[in-house]
Design a protein that fits this description.
alpha/beta; five-stranded parallel β-sheet; single chain; globular; Rossmann fold
Amino acid sequence: MAAMIVIVDDEPDMVETCRRTLEQLGHTCVGALDGIKALELIEAMVPDVVLADLNLPGRDGIEIAREVSRRFPWIPVVMMTAYHTPSVATTAFHAGVSQYLIKPFTNTELRTAIERALGTAN
């Protein structure tokens, strides 16, 4: 199933790497480098999945997850972070995050997280 995915990370290389990986799977991806732009894209596009970093300028990944959960509860949010702790993971899941990736992650881990978020994992 091809999906529209908004990718949010303040590192352009991470956005591009995720975009290339996911587009190879047939998905359409749009990137944002901060939380404010991400929320604008989410509102305008109403994507199938949001892939967001935890630490972002403007609005962080937790705020994005909360806003998406409140306004578009059917859109899964996949959180990615290099700053993993059990309390961060717990906060993320309470904010509405459906999948959680710890950086650095492999293309296979990214694909699996997106497939699970879309409900297409085997």
